[in-house]
Specification:
The chain has a domain of 193 residues. The protein is mainly α and 406 residues long. It has 17 helices and no strands.
Length: 406
């Protein structure tokens, strides 16, 4: 008799799960958005509705050893640190439209992948497929202006999302690197990194090393004297860029502008004290929540930080509110099933805040939309979203049981 051969069973194959309708909507929205922006860049004038020529000109000035922050006729001032001009040099070797497409594609990819990482790893509870699709769809509208103009905001918020997601998972080396990238692009995102550091202190040394690394990078491509001079010019340019009392079309979209439009603006020293007091209060709230519920501390820190750098930031434009976009979308989606009066209040704050954030951007797509920016709707919406985040943090502090971080 021949021995029976052993039977080998193939592992069961996983059935493909059909995407949720909300995920399909988000996919269509982003596909249309990316295709539309790419088509406009290819078919439209080379230097229409874009800041990429400013970055390319700065890279060329860097190669030539010229002043990065000089005023050039017909072109806005370069407002990024010197290392960014040095990093942009490779894009000067390709046609301008190709550079614009590549740069926008990089920003969109970092933003979308960072948002995916944050929804997967950073939130206190996993979102359902429908909630995930809704967040991606809602986050698209605030991203339109920055994607269309080619600004650094998408790369900036993508770095913050990646950094916060890595910090939530206690991956401090990558968290500090991503947060340093965001701070290196515009400096003020360092406030968000410091708040995240209140929740995950081990990320702060890596963040500091990363900032030093980005600061040292320009010295590898130019003479030390020239680099030091450009850093000095960058500081001078930042200090001189005070548009708080400019005409409503150029003034920053922040709380100070709300006071100008709807009341009496405070003295500048009083307003500075208000901003510092708000930052200190946010840091204290994050520290308290971190002691009681470590898993909720990083999302709270990211939401508070993104709110602070927009509604109380140094030079917030309409495009800058893409930084608050993911927080606003998540706050709205996670509040859609209220169970109590407190939940209804949070839903009202998040919903009204999101509508006010995006209404001026949507209205810009039609004739006569610019005057709506002069009503300070975006900073008011940002304050409402920030209030919803603070409300969630206070409720978490009052109801959470003390837990030890793993």
């Amino acid at each position: 008799m021949t021995a029976a051969l052993p039977r080998f069973r193939l592992p069961p194959t996983r059935r493909a799960v059909a995407p949720h309708p909300a995920q399909r909507v988000a996919l269509v929205v982003w596909a249309v958005l990316l295709a539309g922006v790419a088509g406009r860049v290819l078919a439209g004038p080379t230097r229409s509705h874009t800041v990429v020529p400013i970055y390319l000109a700065a890279a060329e000035h860097w190669l030539a050893g010229d002043d990065l922050y000089r005023v050039a006729p017909g072109m806005d001032i370069f407002r990024n640190p010197p290392w960014f001009a040095a990093a942009f040099v490779p894009l000067t070797a390709i046609p301008e439209k190709a550079a614009g497409l590549l740069w926008r594609g990089l920003g969109a990819a970092v933003f979308l992948l960072g948002l995916r990482a944050w929804l997967r790893d950073g939130l206190p509870r996993p979102l359902t497929p429908g909630e995930t699709g809704a967040v991606f769809a809602l986050a698209a509208i605030p991203a339109v202006p920055s994607l269309n103009n080619g600004q650094t905001n998408l790369l900036l918020i993508g770095g913050l999302l990646f950094g916060a997601a890595r910090a939530a998972r206690a991956r401090y080396w990558s968290a500090g690197g991503w947060l340093a990238l965001a701070a290196g692009l515009k400096v003020y995102p360092a406030a968000v990194a410091l708040l995240i550091g209140c929740a995950r202190r081990r990320a702060l040394p890596v963040f500091a090393v990363g900032c030093v690394g980005f600061g040292v990078l320009p010295f590898l491509t130019q003479s030390p004297g020239y680099v030091v001079g450009q850093y000095a010019e960058f500081v001078r340019s930042v200090r001189a860029d005070d548009r708080a009392n400019s005409d409503p079309g150029r003034a920053p979209q922040d709380v100070f502008f709300v006071c100008r439009v709807w009341g009496q603006p405070p003295r500048r020293d009083v307003y500075l004290g208000l901003k510092l007091a708000a930052a200190a209060g946010m840091a204290g709230l994050v520290l308290l929540v971190a002691r009681r519920d470590p898993q909720a501390a990083v999302p709270l820190a990211l939401g508070l930080g993104c709110g602070w750098v927009t509604v109380l930031g140094p030079a917030t434009e309409a495009h800058t509110y893409v930084v608050l976009g993911p927080t606003a979308a998540i706050a709205l989606v996670t509040a859609l099933r209220p169970r109590s009066f407190a939940d209804c209040l949070r839903l009202s704050l998040a919903g009204c805040g999101y509508v006010l954030l995006v209404f001026p951007l949507v209205r810009d797509g039609f004739p006569g939309g610019r005057p709506y920016h002069q009503l300070a709707l975006q900073p008011i919406g940002g304050c409402l979203v920030l209030s919803a985040v603070i409300w969630s943090g206070v409720r978490n502090l009052l109801h959470a049981r003390p837990r030890v971080a793993t």
